[in-house]
Amino acid sequence: MSLHEFLREGGEASCRIVSRLGHLIQSLDVSGLGSSFPFNPAGRRSSWRDWDDDIMQLDSSPLRAADITPDLKKQFAFLSGGRGDTGSPIIVFPEFPAFGEITDGAFHNVLTYLTSVPSLSSTGVGFILVIDRRQDRWAAVKGTLLRIAGSFPGNLQLVLVLRPTTLLQRTLSDILFKFNKDEFKMKVPVIMLSSITELHAYIDHSQLTKELGGTQEYCHEKWISHRTAIEGFALMVKKTAQILQSFGTVLAETELPNDIQATSVLLSTHTNKKDKMKEDLLVALNQGSRLLESINEPVVRDPDHNMNQDELENLATVQRLLSQLDETERAFDEFWVRHQTKLQQCLQLRHFEHNYREVRALLDQVSEKLATFSEVGISPAHADHIFSELSTYEERVCEVLGRASSLACDGDDMIHNSHYAEDSVQPKCMELRAVSENVSSNLRTRKDHLLKAMELHHCLERASKWVDDGIYLLASQPVDKCQSHEGAELALKELEHHLDNAEQNQLSELSTIWREYETVLNQQFRDQVEKVFQKQVSMQEMFDKRRVSLKKLAAKQTRPVQPVAPRPEAFIKSPLSSPAHIAQQERKCSEADSGNSCEKGNGQLQNGDNNSRHASLSEEEENLAVLRRHVMNELLETERAYVEELLCVLQGYASEMDNAAMAHLIPAPLQNKKEVLFGNMLEIYHFHERTFLRELEQYTDCPELIGRCFLERMTDLQIYEKYCHNKPRSESLWRQCSDCAFFQECQKKLEHKLGLDSYLLKPVQRITKYQLLLKEMLKYSKSCEGADDLQDALTSILGILKAVNDSMHLIAITGYEGNMSELGKLLMQGSFSVWTEHKKGHAKVKDLARFKPMQRHLFLHEKTLLFCKRREENGEGYEKAPSYSFKQSLNMSAVGITENAKGDNKKFEIWCNSREEVYIVQAPTAEVKTTWVNEIRKVLTTQLEACRASQQKAPDQVFQFPPVSSGPVSLSPFKSGQKSFKRGEEKKAEPCSLDADFLFFTRSPLEKDLPRVPITRRSGRATPRRLASKAGTRPPCRWMPQRSMKDIPAPMSLLILTQRTTAGRSCVPANIR
């Protein structure tokens, strides 16, 4: 059944059922309800018509017993339940002395209600009124008749009046009734009765109450109670039916939702409302049953009891209401079953569609993932790793295929169970099976191709190893030992033994390989096969040549030779024995016979020793080439493994942190911390996988040139600094969450034996591995073309490692309020013992005792020197790394150094403020001290050159030297020296003007690294007297510009003083002593 047909049939059934509910409500006289549902089964009309009139009569009046209960309880009129001979209902007006006090409204309401109680068939005949006024007067009789004639709402058949029994009143009533008969305007006969006996002539005594001489039992309170209950029950039935119809209309007009949640909510809401309807129906049925038991109580108590006509009508009314309520419940249940089935099928369809979208997306994801698995691989290890990953991923593929198959079976069950959406479900089932078959076929194909590729890779690996071992064997055979008969035979046996394994290791013909592995051979794989095959051919040619040579040596007859001691100088000085000459002769050698000597070029090598030396050089070069290839292979293999490990971590851990299915396993401290945990690992992976690995592979045939690749990508390799800076935060986060279920689950899926922390350390290990590999390559490439590039690459890598190490220390500094980026490049850092001296007046004061130095960690920047205190931290890993508390800083433009202090070769001085502040620094070793002094020299010299360059831009500048003393000198921006001087002596100092020619500094052995710096002078010569000064220290130098020039300031630490030496005049930078 199609969806359209199901909805159309369901709509028609809903209309039929709701129409039945509407008919019930219409029969209960609930205006306006059910009018929109004109359809009504013909079979139901006759069954309801029998009691429609009773219910309509029951509800035709807006009055209810509960509304006029006080007036009814006065009992000035009541329905006794009796009937006349024609079935007319009897209304009794008993003795009621206060009848005249009853208001017209109360009188009218009571009579209106009493005439509405009997059925329409009974009221159509007319009512019989019995007025009992035997104990009253004629005036009461007249008043009653007048009020009845004026306001009785129903049809009258007969009025029987029991007139007053006293003689006077009876006589008076007979006379006055005849004269006033027309005044009553009665359309029916009014009969005056003198006694009860006369009443029995008109009405059977069984239809009269005991007060009127009859046998009928009547209880007015009980009658009021029954009427109130019946009317309340009828009202409940009407309201229930109205609610059911409204609810049915809502259900019939409800549109099916398009998502699971809305459908589930709708089904739940409708079910709850249905349950509430059922509860209301049950309450109504229980109330009707109790009312029915109450009406039947006299019969149950006395089986011979005869009910009056009103009681029988009440009983019938309640029974019919209960019957109709049961029928309504059955109709509603029938409607609900269809509606619930429709909603359940809709929910089932929405689940199917949701699962279909999920499974379809998973199938697409699996198909895309399978497409990423290479069918070839670039190496045996790579192919094995891909196959292992594919085998692991096969479980995921089988899981997805299982879900797809199960979902298709669910769709088949829906179709088999006549689901209304069969036209929508069936195509989806067919598509799921088709896509699943495609994915399964793709998986099998890739596994078969990988197995084939792995087989070929291993063949290439065996062949390549066999070839490399053969070349290594040729390189490892000493040429001098092969000159003997025994040595040649031993070497020949080694070659034969290696060739014995050729069948198991060497490649077959290329045509055979092309034919057997056609399905997996791409261009890169073909080139790899051809390269290995070419190496195999070349190795076999080398073996053939070596075998021929060894066989000749082994077959050569030995002859006695007189031992002669050769002169070593002869060979050394011979121009024919130089490596260049040998190489030239090698190119001129004939390939026809390796045993023949070279023909004429610069000369012939006729001596057997020269041939041996020539062969030795070639063998050594071959050995180095083999070793370079080994280093290159290790570099490439470890690089590929490194890239695969990074990808494994990123996919197996980092991507899983974004997987919603794994979110519940991630602890709170780890949430949204992926960048902290992994740093810029993704950036590192992209660089190596997309760029660096591919460029390294281009140098496979020329490994000695690999330094160029490193130099070209040195800037990109600096991304490791960012990773190393983040490593402490990453390790701290890992220790905090290492035991969480998320990491354990990821490690289980990846089948890793080591935890994530081991893989997070891989980038740090990799950047340090490069310098080891470059050292090895440089070791075997010193005479090659790319040796300089290798050396530069090694230096640059070591520089990156040093920068990373220094920056790791730098970020551990605490308490520095300035901007460290303004300090310039970090040049050096290290721990020292420091003493501090302050000069106050003529006294020197030390901050601490001489034998208690301060332990300080110094950071030398281009512009500033920082003093910090090292603090060891407790913890593990990076948390155990020290931190540094900032203590003070010195501006490098205002410091000077003294290389030797106190005669200790490990101490030097850093001072400023004219040596008012002196820092005696003791290095751990003399070498450390020398390195630091040289680096500080470079900084100060750079500042000096910068100052000179800026001053040369200003023409005609005059440099004024102060007097020169033979004592120690300094280059401080302030007044310096170890002795005080008098102002009068300062005035005696004559300034010296230097001419424009250059005077270079002479340097002591300790100052051998200091560059020669020229100083301009105006006069041709400066006498010793003018350059000398009296005892004491000189004042600082001053630049004296000419009158026409503006002042040009210079860094005070770079001003130059002269020093007189025994050898003559020399200018020495006094801030570097």
From TrEMBL:
InterPro entries: CRAL-TRIO_dom (IPR001251), CRAL-TRIO_dom_sf (IPR036865), DBL_dom_sf (IPR035899), DBS_PH (IPR035534), DH_dom (IPR000219), GDS_CDC24_CS (IPR001331), PH-like_dom_sf (IPR011993), PH_domain (IPR001849). The keyword Phosphoprotein applies. GO terms for biological process: intracellular signal transduction; positive regulation of Rho protein signal transduction. One of its GO terms (cellular component) is cytoplasm. Residues 819-941 form the PH domain. SMART domains: PH, RhoGEF, SEC14. CDD domains: PH_Dbs, RhoGEF, SEC14. Residues 627-807 form the DH domain. Residues 64-220 form the CRAL-TRIO domain. Pfam families: CRAL_TRIO_2, RhoGEF, SOS1_NGEF_PH, Spectrin_5. PROSITE patterns: CRAL_TRIO, DH_1, DH_2, PH_DOMAIN. Residues 567-617, 1017-1044 are annotated as: Disordered. Keywords: Guanine-nucleotide releasing factor, Phosphoprotein. Residues 593-615 have a biased composition (Polar residues). One of its GO terms (molecular function) is guanyl-nucleotide exchange factor activity. Residues 1018-1028 have a biased composition (Basic residues). Belongs to the MCF2 family. This is MCF.2 cell line derived transforming sequence like.
